[in-house]
Amino acid sequence: MKFLRFYMNAYKGLSKEIWILSAVSLINRAGAMVLPFLSLYLMDNLSFSLKDTGSILSFYGIGSLIGTRTGGWLADKIGYFKTQFWSLFLASFMFILLLTVDTFYGLCFMIMTTSAIADIFRPANMASVSAYSKPENLTRSIGLNRLAINLGYAIGPAVGGVLVLYSGYDVLFVVDGITCMLASLVFFYFLSPKGKTVTIEKPSSTLKEKGPFQDVYFMVFLLAVLMSSIGFMQLFYTQPIFWKNYFNLSEDHIGLLLALNCILVVLIEVPLLFKIENKVSSLKMVSLGALLFAAAYGVYSLSSWAILPIISVILISFGEIFNFPFANTSALKRSGKYNAGKYMGAYAMSFSLAHIIAPGAGFWIAENYSFHVLWAMTAGLLIVSSILFISLRKKII
After folding, report:
1. How far apart are CA 110 and CA 94, in angstroms?
2. Which of 71, 243, 251, 288 is disulfide-compatible with 123, CB 3.0–4.6 A?
């Protein structure tokens, strides 16, 4: 009972708007079924080669980069509400329109455009979490939103796999479109400007706050975020291939390992943040998270024990719990009163860049050298990232 009471208390004190934003994220991510199966769709349904499939997928990262940059600018220009609503609403049509395209260049353009429109949502969403949250529980508010995203990511691919098995790939695009539309309607109904909303103040002509790209310390922070994100994303891009080739794991076991990551984050993150929020330095936690990422890849140098993939996933999950919410908090606190959208847009761009770099670099190193060289290099990159984070602890709030 004591544990249950503690677990319930971890979610107390968060505003109604934070719960609504998290519900929107859950609906949106639970329907995000296209991306996990996009490579299989391109190869199995449309008969593209591995090389062409990789080229097409790279445009998803390029679109994400465009979207997060644009979303940060729009959030400060027209407000968080309009930016998020129109991103969700328009993305619903784009996912369905993707079904009508089957040429190489057409898919490159459509996937880039769809990704750009969908990811306009992200920086505005992150900035609005700050606007709707109380300062003392900002990190927990971020944690709740991340919990919803992770829970959605656990549901989406699992349901998507069943739909593909019984109905084919086409239905995934329709479901993704419908859930985007549903998320936009929930968002509009419960957070409409007619009710309580965030008022976007305009700076006076004499007041100017520098943007993220003029903030030298913040740019170093983003470099460290990029490094740690590249390392983290190997979990989804290269580790499954490694598990299959070196540990002879089947697809269902690989799926369970990836689900373990989501389950651990969902169960542990918010209660842990409740315990340590406002008691520790944010950047120390971010640095610790990067070190745990490094340890997750370092374990593969120990031996070939069958349990190593499980240990690696557990270490990555705890690294994610420490790294991402506190990094998000640091970025929000670093931003000013009138440019939170731009700062969060720049922060989200670092993840978009990681999506472009991580798969290409990871597979190239593994193919030309070996997976063990990849893990050593990834661990080294993450250690450098950890050092950068800790060196900024007196420079970044």
Report:
1. 8
2. 71
Split into its structural domains, the chain has a count of 2
Domain assignment of residue 2, yes or no: no
Can you tell me whether residue 377 is helix, strand or coil? helix
- Does 86 score more than 70 pLDDT? yes
Distance, in Å, from the CA atom of 151 to the CA atom of 155, rounded to the nearest integer, reads 6
Q: How far apart are CA 107 and CA 214, in angstroms?
A: 36
In a shared domain, residues 188 and 46: yes
pLDDT of 309 over the 80 cut: yes
Domain boundary among 144, 167, 195: 195
pTM above 0.90, yes or no: no
Same domain, 64 and 191: yes
Q: Do 182 and 225 have their domain in common? A: no
Of 90 and 27, the structure prediction assigns the larger pLDDT to 90
Residues 6+ apart with CB under 8 A from 328: 126, 142, 347
Angle at 358 (CA atoms; ends 142, 141), nearest 5 degrees = 0
Tokens coding 349: 């761009």
Provide the domain limits for residue 267.
Answer: 212-397
> Is the pLDDT at 207 greater than 80, yes or no?
no
Residues 217 and 334 in one domain: yes
Domain harbouring 354, CATH code: 1.20.1250.20
Q: Is residue 1 part of a domain?
A: no
Residue 142 to residue 293: CA distance in whole angstroms: 20
Same domain as 243, residue 181: no
